[in-house]
Amino acid sequence: MPFGGGAHTCLGDRLAMVQMRTFLQVFTRELALSPAWPGDERVRWKAFCNVQAAGCRVIARPR
Ligand code: HEM
Question: Ligand 1: residues whose CB is within 6 Å?
Answer without folding.
Answer: 2-6, 8-12, 15-16
